[in-house]
Design a protein that fits this description.
By secondary structure, this protein is α+β, with helices and mostly antiparallel strands. The strands form eight sheets. Strands 6, 7, 8, 9, 10 and 11 form a six-stranded antiparallel beta sheet that branches. Strands 5-2-12 form a three-stranded antiparallel beta sheet, with helices on one face.
Length: 631
């Protein structure tokens, strides 16, 4: 779609009208992240497009669970019953974002789609040496350097935080001056790069056709008689145009200059909505984050944890109860304290006694912190004699409220974690069955598959748009292979499955497959550790056998004793081989040897160890004979 100047002007005028009316009400701007939302739930911003406020409200509700520095004003706006202003200030001052770890763990779940060997991309050989497409997207990309790493670093969190945000392929165009001294675009290749715009900045859109955003850039405008770089810059993206419109004149007038238009060669509108579960609002498609379902529970966790902290400050510590004596303070005019109040006979006014702070009693604590009790005498009896010990006590308030809040926090957190497919703690999952692990695996797969499809669809589109913009007429397309399976199972899931498989007598070849994946789940990020375990899997022929089976087979002569040595001591033997290895040009490290050579070296070392320690059965027999057969 190509927008005419009239269509561009209409979009800008509509935005300016809505923005000016809203800004006049002293509302916070859409690009201000920390915003005090109205407590009554009314619309926070103009409805720039159907569903805009829904999208922004979702963004802000999720944001408080993803950042440590954002206080959930809207969540705490409605006070709890009996809550004072002082208590509210304490809640705000002591607030801790304790749900951020759930966000981080959930992000790790989404990140599984980028597992090695789960997906691939083939790129065309386009460009000249030193500026090929492959070199550009891996080493030279403007602003981000490596396109794949940008996606891996950003998309999992953006998928959670902002399903209605945009991924845009923008471009930097070089300029030069012509013979007339006018600035024109040079013939150098454009430098396309990915850009993210959060949903509050998306102020106009027609899905798949055009999108208008509030840019991160600013324009020069007049503010209180001086020029300041505080004006709004709007960017519009279509299938053929990059359009930039800058605010001009006085800031409060919201006037915009003529559009600056650059024609691009992306071949499509280079904008993608991050996406999620679709929701229709007034015939407009809006998206829900996969994290959004758990937000109500996590909100309760934030509230309860804040109330717990406040409650601990007021009722978790014991209160001192001790004996006091009537205050007998007398001021310079001779006015005395009576039940904490001093009556001024000259003026007829009353004031609080400063000596006892209006309590009418003075402390009986001595200078060393001891409570002083007056025993009295026969001539001057004391009422202290009527007091029975203890003279000093500490009263602890009931803690049922604290225990209740703590149990609520745990319950809501666990429920949210189940919704987010991150489960409870490992300690609480020890009782899982293999069937339970498989059900969880299916659930995680069903969750990851559509989110993976959406993310890789955006990646494929961005890769193609970058190529078409930088190499117009030369670029063909990239070939993406999307993930079809994921590493859904955790180490604990594999152990449960392996244990039950062995109990049920599942064929060793099947158990071997499970053990192999278990080892990979422990070491998939460390190449050396992966190769370490790979050698054990390849060389240990007894890996699938129980110790009783091994002993039985040794006694039957089916298994040789050196194989048991290898089975029992493989890690130590491999580490010894690594230390003894002599580097060569072909194999600088032990693991650079061919696998067959590694296995042969390991078997040889196991045999030599057996020769050193001898036959353990013969050693036992010799020991018995040496003691004359005594037990």
């Amino acid at each position: 779609m190509t927008l005419s100047e009239q269509q561009i002007a209409a979009l800008v005028q509509d935005f300016a009208k809505k923005y000016k009316g809203w800004a006049g009400k002293s509302k916070s701007r859409p690009m201000d992240w920390i915003t005090k939302d109205p407590a009554d739930g009314s619309s926070l911003y103009p409805e720039y497009w159907p569903g805009y406020n829904y999208a922004v409200k979702q963004y802000k509700e999720i944001e408080v669970h993803t950042r440590q520095d954002v206080f959930p004003e809207r969540l705490f706006a409605k006070r709890a019953p009996n809550q004072t202003e002082e208590q509210y200030k304490y809640l705000k001052g002591s607030y801790q974002a304790i749900t951020v770890p759930e966000f981080e763990e959930f992000k790790n779940v989404i990140s599984r789609i980028y597992g090695e060997q789960l997906w691939s991309v083939q790129v065309p050989a386009i460009g000249t040496e030193g500026e090929t497409y492959q070199e550009y997207i891996t080493e030279q990309m403007y602003r981000v350097r490596n396109l794949e790493q940008w996606f891996k670093a950003n998309m999992p969190s953006l998928k959670i935080k902002d399903p209605n945000g945009l991924i845009v392929v923008d471009a930097e165009y070089s300029t030069e001056y012509d013979d007339n001294g006018d600035e024109v675009y040079s013939s150098e290749r454009p430098m396309p790069y990915p850009e993210y715009y959060p949903s509050p900045r998306v102020v106009a859109r027609k899905l798949g056709e055009y999108y208008m955003v509030i840019s991160y850039d600013k324009s020069m405008v007049e503010y209180n008689g001086t020029m300041k770089k505080e004006g709004i810059v709007l960017e519009i993206y279509t299938s053929t145009q990059y359009i930039s419109i800058k605010q001009v004149g006085k800031q409060i007038d919201y006037k915009f200059g003529q559009p600056e238009i650059i024609l691009h060669t992306a071949g499509t509108c280079p904008v993608w909505v991050i996406g999620g579960s679709p929701v229709i609002i007034d015939d407009e498609m809006v998206f829900n984050s996969p994290f959004y379902t758990a937000v109500p529970l996590l909100n309760l966790v934030l509230l309860d944890s804040s109330y717990l902290n406040a409650s601990k400050a007021t009722c978790a510590y014991p209160h001192e109860v001790s004996i006091g004596i009537p205050c007998d303070f007398k001021d310079t005019q001779g006015n005395t304290c009576s039940n904490g109040v001093i009556f001024d006979r000259m003026s007829g006014n009353e004031r609080q006694c400063a000596a006892c702070n209006g309590t009418g009693l003075r402390s009986r604590m001595g200078p060393t912190g001891k409570l002083l009790v007056n025993p009295g005498t026969d001539l001057s009896p004391s009422r202290d004699a009527e007091i029975r010990p203890p003279y000093l006590a500490f009263v602890a308030p009931p803690t049922e409220t604290l225990s209740f809040l703590r149990s609520e926090i745990i319950a809501h957190t666990n429920k949210a974690r189940q919704i987010l497919h991150i489960g409870e703690t490992e300690a609480k999952e020890e009782g899982l069955t293999a069937a339970g692990s498989m059900n969880r695996q299916r659930s995680v797969h069903a969750f990851l598959k559509p989110n993976s499809e959406q993310i890789f669809h955006i990646m494929e589109g961005v890769y193609n748009a970058v190529g078409n913009i930088r190499y117009p007429g030369e670029f063909t397309s990239v070939n993406f292979t999307y993930p079809q399976s994921f590493d859904e199972m955790r180490p604990s899931d594999y152990l449960v499955t392996i244990g039950e498989s062995i109990k049920l007598g599942v064929p060793p070849s099947v158990v071997f497959h499970q053990v192999y994946h278990y080892l990979r789940s422990l070491a998939f990020t460390d190449e050396k550790t992966t190769r370490f375990y790979q050698l054990i899997v390849e060389a240990d022929q007894l890996l699938m056998l129980s110790q009783n089976d091994i002993i039985s087979r040794i006694n039957s002569g089916i298994v040789e004793k050196w194989q048991d040595v290898l089975h029992q001591s493989a890690p130590q033997l491999i580490m010894e081989l690594m230390r003894l290895h002599v580097p060569t040009d072909v194999a600088p490290e032990f693991f650079d040897l061919p696998m067959s050579d590694q296995i042969a070296a390991l078997e040889s070392l196991a045999k030599s160890k057996l020769a050193e320690i001898g036959d353990p059965v013969q050693q036992i027999q010799a020991a018995i004979l040496a003691t004359g057969g005594a037990a």
